[in-house]
Amino acid sequence: MYATLLHHASTTTYMPQCAGVPFQLECYRPKPNRCRITPDDTPEKAGTSTHQLQEGDVVLFATDGVWDNLYLKGDILEDISAKMLKTHCWKKKKDGTIAVSSEHLAAAVRDASGALHTTLARAVVAMAKTESMGRTKARPPSEKWFGPHIPGGQKDDITVVVTVVTKDSLNPSVPKPAAH
After folding, report:
1. How far apart are CA 170 and CA 117, in angstroms?
2. Which pLDDT does position 63 carry in this prediction?
3. Cα angle for residues 175, 59, 158 (degrees, 5° grid)
4. How far apart, in Å, are the Cα atoms of 117 and each of 13, 42, 65?
């Protein structure tokens, strides 16, 4: 595995209600859910964090339909690493570390036939969907609620957003106002 995990806000961190009812950021009229708890997860209660990004970093946001079915280190990081290496955006150096190819990265992000971030997001969605449809190997549960290594898939919403950091995104040019 080549990718390194810098931060992971796990579903157990934001699962205050009960099993299968993760932290939900939305504004709605309070009404009891299946756990007989009135949700009160307003945007003001959201967790935040700040990270220094560098060229070649891959940032992934996903709903619990992904985290309930895929192991971060065993499924997601390995797949993303393989795709970043296959596209030559990352290159493995002799010492085992990764170097970023600015040229390949910029081209892959701008590829009209399948931008890199779109390709990575679709791959994670496809893996999560496949695993949610009834697999036999253990899935990564929230051990707090379900206990360790429960077999079978967990059908749930699957949403993934991926961004890949490029030099341009680190140093965006500020557009000049149009002349009147």
Report:
1. 16
2. 85
3. 115
4. 26, 29, 19
